[in-house]
Amino acid sequence: MRLWSLAPDYLDRQGLAACWREALLAQAVLAGRTKGYRDHPQLARFRATPDPLAAVGDYLEGVAAEASARTYS
After folding, report:
1. Residue at 3 is within a domain
2. 31: phi then psi, degrees, rounded to nearest 5
3. Do the domain assignments include residue 2?
4. CB-based contacts of 46: which residues, under 8 Å, 6+ apart?
């Protein structure tokens, strides 16, 4: 799982797309919709928040905003 702790504007096209996919996977794991990756260390920072699903949602919003700024669809 690649959930980087840097601003999405530092990622290249492939990195931004990978970040989006991996964050969607993290969202599914935190929502209990998948059996794998439950204990992945990258999820610890989201689980440490009062609302892990909202935290990963905020993360996805940042990635989506950067994709929109680059006019990706």
Report:
1. no
2. -85, -5
3. no
4. 26, 30, 52, 55, 56, 59
Structural Rg of the chain based on CA atoms: 12
* Distance separating alpha carbons of residues 23 and 1, to the nearest angstrom: 8
CB 28 within 8 A of CB 60: no
Cβ atoms of 63 and 19 within 8 Å: the answer is yes
CA dihedral 62, 16, 8, 42 (to 10 degrees): 80
DSSP string, the chain: ----SS-GGGS-HHHHHHHHHHHHHHHHHHTT--STTTT-GGGHHHHTSS-HHHHHHHHHHHHHHHHHHTT--
Kindly report the pTM of this predicted structure.
0.89
Per the structure, the complete domain to which residue 47 belongs is given by: 8-69
What tens digit of pLDDT does each residue of 26-67 get?
A: 999 999 999 889 999 999 999 999 999 999 999 999 999 999
